[in-house]
Design goal:
The structure is a single chain. The chain has 62 helices and 2 strands. With about 1350 residues, it is mainly alpha-helical. It is extended. A two-stranded antiparallel sheet has the order 1-2.
Length: about 1350
């Protein structure tokens, strides 16, 4: 055999195939490879030793070298032959390895190496064939030489054949044979380590090569064979170091191998009992460092660590002290991986036998568990939101563990509640999600059923605490008694022992005298004596021990129960503490976060958390959410917010409960519906109304429930008022969708709501009126449409008679006003001629209000009812007989003291209220009349046109007619209706309302005469409504309304005026626009409601262009930093909406800065900064920023106050300075602010601007200009500081000179004055002598 083959050299040479030298090389491109392959295959099939023949070996090497020219079928045939011969050779080697003769064993070395070399080469060549077939189409025709024709059709067939060829089915067999080869006793065949390592490397390289293909590794069979090859090589052939290098490279360059390599190492540790390789790789990974910019590497290693910790947590636990270093890694994927690794370790420790069986090692395992939990919770403060979210996702998995871990649960709960204010929505969502999981899996349900009601848990805690204290106190007394008993017993026993000793001595002496055995007779004596004393002592002691043990066990049990309740209380209180933040999350703009918060409140409500009901009510407002479609986020389908809300409410209130009778189900659902109205605000009722309408439209409300609601409403027996009210509220809501619900029961409404029950409960009557309005239908008016689908009734209908009787029914309750408002609304909504009924109503109320009272002494007892109680308290005390004359004057007072023309103040309040509301409703009615006239005229003209023009031109005629209606008809009819409103309603000779305008002005303008609060409130409200009717009346009297707004002490009156001014502005914007300054004063009102209403009205008027902003926007800006969050939120909403208007904020920005920085309106500097920081966030256009820079620089010239300098400099620093033009404008304005740079804070702001400009500057442009500007600024600052110091010194010298001059003049005066006493002294003495 002349072949010379060194495996290591051949493997090295194989790295460069193009220059690989084959002595007997055959070129398949010139010769047909078929016969060559047949020759070689036949040779090794005859004998596997034939591979050592140089010619045979070179044939295989030639075909592999030129594999791109060999057809796939030949490649498959070659592989089958090689594997078959290799297998035979392996079997022979295994068989001969049992022989003692080393030469027999060594004879297999060369064939084995050759086969291993060829198989190794084939794996690379096979991939090459595959790659050519799929990706490199041009060389494919070379393989068509086999077809002899060389035609295009043959080439295409060859390409197709090459594309179809793959050795994927042969890979498992190949790897299986390699596994078989790895079972050889290599130490007998290869004596030296380098030779043996070369052979093992040659065998394992195909496995690594196959693993590099993502497609192959997806197949379970191939994947397991790859693992087996690596494991056998590591376990039996010292492949550890090479495997470590290969695995690390695989992780670095092949992302798909992260999880497979982790599985391989896990199998190596579990099935092959070789964990050292995994440990080494973990140590190497722990020593690596990853930068924040590296994305590929950290992801691969992180996936490997996570999978390995899941597959083999004990191996990772041993190296966790090293891996923890990656928690401080710059790369967040590595930090996320370590978080997940810690989670896997916690799961492993918690489910270990040490923890579950509570063995001796549980203490150590518990410490490890606490340490890992502490590590995990500390990462809730990580800089990356991805890591923080991953922490909560990992902790969520921990909650499914069988171990309770109460302390850790409490820590998780606190961390989650703290995270609810995180700036990242994904983290907040994860925190809410884990809170839901904590409630669902809480461990406090074993004893008390699982509710989490705070009051109940406090009662339970108090119960066990009292019992424990009582028992501990009893045991303390018992211990004292036991000690005394023991002392007595001990003394008795000692005395008996002395007697026994004496008796025993005497008996021993007698026994010795008699010669008997000394131990025979004394024993029974001793036993009897001992039975008398020792048995009693034992009984007492054992009984005490038993009782003590029993009581100790009871104390221990009670202590555990008390601890159980303490932990439950901590858990519940922590959850309750986060309810405010969770409620705010319902208003988030992130849909997933809102859905998670809704789920939390649903679960919390089911578990009876006290504050959950507030969240459930807040959820109601989400019914107005526009997004109702399902969207996909992170691969998950998300329901729409509105559909999820309906689902939550159905689950909580409307879905039938199992094991309940149908009748009980109906009662329960009706009861739940009614309870939803209890203590509900107007906003909540509006949202509930929309929800009920949607549910009724979808057919989710059964008619049995509606019938039950009618039963509750019409029940003849006495019911709680709120229950009957709730029933009619819900019925009115449902009627929005289906008016027959009300139309079929009108008689019931009149009998109950407008009958005795309604007169006794005016709120019930008010909601009954609302329900009656549903008869009109709920079709919304389309803007510009002349259609009117509303239902109108004859005025003889019993409904109107009942409504009039209800309004005129004598009453002293303030609830009357709300009822009367809705009753009038109902009249105008349903009646064909509501003005006729209201005419009679106003006249009747006028007669009652101005009727002469026969006995003026009696009525003072009437105002003492609930309606007038507050009013009398507000007035100065006077004698009862004169109270009506001083406080309840109606309109006139006579000069006579005997007889006065008095009226009832409440009757007058009712009259004025009705008059005002009729006036405002009549305006709306006139609009309906105008629309009806236009519709009738439109129909008439359209009919005439169609009659003339015929049907073919119908569409055109309709279009022309609409244009005509919009033009002539609207002008004519609109002007007529406007004239009626302007001149006839309040000034017409036949107008009833004309009489009440002057009366309202008189009452509102004479607060010293009309002091009753109810009267003043009703009069002011009606006066406001009158202002909306006629521009003439408004122009004459609107100053009075502003005067009342300024002087009234009643916040309700001020609040109503603010809202009314908004309505007046809509009607007559020019009048209010001239006096808008008065309206802005409401923003500084001390009452929260007045301030909020003012802000809302101004927001509406400004955004809709009703009034112009004339520099008062600064007052709105002040609200941004209001202490009340509702005010600040409304102000932020206003500025956000204002920013959508063209340049609105930009145009008013100088006025806002002036308003907040100088003058009486100026705010504190810190408030100014935070306000400006928010407003400047809306300046996004670079052109605007440039102009603002110029304007602000010029302001420096006009300002002398250092506070203004600091404010202007701060505003300049808020601009982005993205363009060079902005910086240029700033430099050009240097002359205006160079003498202000010495002021503290001004220069610092310019330094901030410079750093911002540098960061935004293009990288290819030099900093020369900015550096020069910085040096100029620095120079002027220094010069300014020197000038200031000089100025201070000069002022100091002036002050010193002034003081010196003052002292000098003082001394001169003293010198001039001193001689006088000397010259006058004798005279003084003479005088004194004279007096003497």
């Amino acid at each position: 055999m002349s072949v010379s083959f060194e495996l290591q050299d051949e493997l090295q040479a194989l790295q460069d195939i193009a220059n690989y030298d084959i002595p007997n090389e055959q070129d398949p491109n010139s010769n047909d490879p078929g016969p060559l392959l047949q020759q070689a295959v036949g040779a090794i099939a005859h004998s596997s030793q034939e591979i050592t023949d140089p010619e045979i070996f070179d044939i295989f090497r030639s075909l592999l070298k030129h594999s791109d020219a060999v057809a796939g079928a030949y490649m498959s045939k070659m592989l089958d032959a090689l594997l078959s011969a290799f297998g035979v050779q392996i079997d022979a080697a295994i068989r001969d390895s049992k022989e003692e003769d080393q030469r027999i064993v060594m004879a297999h070395k060369l064939p084995l190496e050759m086969y291993a070399f060829l198989v190794n080469w084939f794996v690379g060549a096979a991939e090459k064939v595959k790659a050519v077939g799929e990706e490199d189409a041009p060389p494919a025709p070379v393989k068509a030489r086999r077809g002899r024709g060389g035609k295009a059709g043959t080439s295409r067939a060859a390409v197709k054949k090459a594309e179809q060829w793959t050795w994927i089915d042969q890979i498992p067999g190949t790897l299986e044979l390699i596994c078989k080869a790895l079972k050889l006793k290599t130490h007998r065949i290869w004596v030296t380590s380098p030779e043996r390592d070369a052979f093992i490397t040659c065998l394992t390289r195909p496995a690594y090569h196959v693993a590099e293909s993502d497609q192959y590794m997806k197949i379970q069979n191939i994947r397991m064979h790859v693992y087996k090859v690596i494991c056998l090589a590591v376990k039996h052939h010292g492949h550890t170091l090479a495997a470590q290098i290969n695995i690390m490279q695989s992780l670095q360059y092949y992302e798909h191998l992260s999880e497979p390599m982790a599985e391989c190492l896990s199998i190596l540790a579990k099935e092959f009992d070789h964990a050292q390789l995994g440990d080494e790789i973990l140590r190497e990974i722990a020593g690596k460092s990853f930068s924040a910019q590296d994305t590929k590497g950290p992801r691969a290693f992180s996936r490997f660590l996570v999978r390995f910790s899941e597959e083999s947590p004990r191996s990772v636990l041993k190296q966790i002290s090293l891996l923890i270093g990656h928690l401080d890694s710059e790369s967040y994927p590595m930090r996320m991986a370590i978080v997940e690794v810690i989670g896997s370790l916690i799961r492993e420790l918690a489910t270990s036998e040490d923890m579950t069986n509570r063995t001796n090692g549980s203490n150590q395992a518990g410490k490890e568990l606490d340490g890992l939990f502490e590590l995990l919770l500390s990462r809730t403060l990580d800089l990356s939101s991805y890591v923080r979210s991953k922490v909560f996702a990992t902790l969520s998995k921990m909650l499914d563990l069988p171990l309770r871990l109460p302390e850790q649960r409490l820590r998780i709960t606190r961390a989650a509640v703290d995270t609810l204010e995180d700036k990242a929505s994904t983290v907040r969502k994860a925190a809410v999600s884990i809170l839901v999981k904590l409630i669902l899996t809480h461990p406090y349900g074993d004893m008390y059923g699982g509710d989490l009601n705070l009051e109940k848990w406090e009662e339970r805690y108090k119960t066990w605490k009292d019992k424990l204290e009582e028992m501990e106190g009893g045991i303390g007394k018992a211990v004292e008694r036991d000690q005394n008993d023991k002392e007595e017993v001990k003394s008795n026993v000692e005395e008996e022992d002395v007697d026994e000793d004496e008796d025993a001595e005497m008996e021993d002496a007698d026994a010795n005298d008699d010669g008997d055995a000394p131990s025979d007779n004394p024993k029974p004596k001793k036993k009897r004596a001992a039975r008398k004393s020792i048995v009693n002592v034992t009984a007492i002691v054992s009984e005490q021990e038993a009782l003590a043990a029993l009581e100790t066990n009871e104390i221990l049990a009670m202590g555990l129960r008390k601890k159980y309740c303490t932990e439950a209380l901590d858990f519940v209180r922590t959850l309750e503490g986060g309810m405010t933040s969770l409620t705010q999350l319902l208003g988030s703009t992130n849909k997933a976060e809102v859905l998670e918060s809704m789920e939390f409140f649903r679960v919390a409500f089911e578990y009876q958390l006290a504050s959950a009901e507030k969240g459930i009510k807040r959820m109601l407002h989400l019914i107005w959410h526009k997004d109702n479609s399902s969207t996909s986020e992170d691969g998950k389908e998300l329901k729409g917010v509105r559909s999820r809300l309906l689902e939550c409410y159905r689950m909580l209130y409307f879905d039938p409960l199992p094991d309940m009778e149908p009748k009980q189900q109906v009662n329960r659902i009706a009861k739940n519906m009614i309870e939803l109205t209890y203590e509900a605000t107007l906003a909540e009722l509006t949202s509930l109304e929309e929800m009920m309408r949607i549910m009724m439209e979808d057919g989710q409300i059964h008619y049995d429930v509606i019938n039950k609601l009618w039963q509750v409403y019409s029940a003849p027996q006495a019911l709680p008022r709120s229950q009957r009210r709730g029933a009619i509220i819900i019925l009115g809501m449902l009627a929005l969708s289906k008016r027959t619900i009300i139309s079929e029961k009108v008689d019931t409404l009149l009998k109950i709501g407008l009958g005795p029950f309604g007169k006794a409960d005016l709120t019930l009557a008010r909601y009954t009126c609302l329900a009656l309005q549903r008869l009109n239908g709920s079709a919304k008016k389309v803007k510009g449409s002349l259609l009117d689908k509303s239902l109108r009734m004859e005025m003889e209908n019993p409904i109107f008679r009942k409504l009039q009787n209800t309004i005129e029914h004598p009453c002293r309750s303030k609830d009357w006003f709300g009822m009367a408002e809705q009753a009038i609304n109902t009249i105008y909504a349903l009646g064909e001629h509501p003005d006729e009924l209201c005419n009679n109503l106003v006249k009747n109320l006028t007669r009652r209000a101005f009727a002469r009272r026969q006995n003026p002494e009696e009525p003072p007892s009437e105002p003492d009812t609930e309606t007038m109680e507050v009013d009398q308290e507000m007035e100065p005390p006077e004698p009862a007989s004169h109270a009506p004359s001083s406080t309840h004057n109606s309109t006139q007072q006579s000069s006579t003291s005997e007889e006065k023309d008095l009226g009832d103040v409440f009757h007058l309040s009712q009259l004025l209220f009705v008059v005002g509301h009729v006036a405002i409703k009549h305006i709306v009615f006139l609009e309906l009349v105008e629309r009806e006239w236009k519709r009738q005229k439109d129909e008439k003209q359209l009919a005439e046109k169609l009659a003339v023009g015929g049907s073919p031109n119908r569409v055109n005629k309709e279009t022309e007619e609409l244009d005509q209606v919009a033009g002539n008809a609207e002008d004519e009819i609109g002007e007529r209706i406007a004239a009626v409103r302007e001149t006839e309603l309040l000034y017409g000779e036949q107008s009833l309302l004309k009489l009440y305008g002057p009366l309202l002005v008189h009452v509102c303008g004479s607060p010293h005469k009309f002091k009753n609060r109810t009267l003043r409130a009703a009069a002011t409200l009606s006066f406001s409504k009158f202002l909306c009717v006629s521009s003439q009346f408004c122009d004459q009297h609107h100053h009075l309304l502003f005067k009342i707004l300024e002087t009234s002490r009643d916040p309700n009156i001020r609040s109503n005026i603010v809202i009314a001014l908004g309505d007046v502005a809509v009607s007559f914007s020019n009048i209010i626009d001239e006096n808008s300054n008065e309206l802005y004063k409401g923003l500084s009102d001390g009452d929260l409601v007045v301030k909020k209403n003012t802000l809302m009205v101004l927001t509406h008027l400004i955004l809709n262009g009703m009034i112009k902003v004339k520099g008062q926007l600064g007052e709105m800006a002040k609200c941004l930093e209001d202490e009340e969050p509702r005010i600040s939120d409304l102000a932020k909403l206003f500025f956000t909406e204002l920013s959508t208007k063209d340049n609105a904020i930009y145009n008013n920005l100088p006025d806002v800065i002036s308003h907040l920085s100088t003058g009486d309106h100026a705010v504190e500097e810190e408030i100014f900064k935070s306000t400006m920081r928010y407003i400047f966030s809306f300046i996004e256009k670079e052109k605007q920023a440039e102009n603002i820079v110029e304007k602000l620089c010029q302001r420096f010239r006009l300002s002398e106050d250092p506070r203004q300098w600091r404010d202007i400099a701060f505003c300049l620093s808020l601009l982005p300075f993205k363009s060079e033009r902005s910086v240029k404008k700033l430099i050009e304005g240097l002359q205006f602010y160079r003498d202000k740079l010495h002021e503290g804070g001004v220069f610092d702001r310019f330094s901030e601007i410079l750093s911002k400009a540098r960061s935004n500057k293009s990288a290819n442009k030099p900093d020369t200009e900015l550096n020069e500007f910085e040096s100029i600024l620095d120079e002027h600052r220094r010069q300014g500081e020197e000038d200031q110091a000089l100025e201070k010194r000069v002022e100091g010298k002036k002050a010193a000179a002034k003081r010196k001059a003052t002292r000098r003049s003082a001394r001169k005066k003293v010198v001039e004055v001193e001689p006088e006493p000397i010259s006058e002294a004798p005279a003084t003495r003479d005088d004194d002598d004279m007096y003497v």
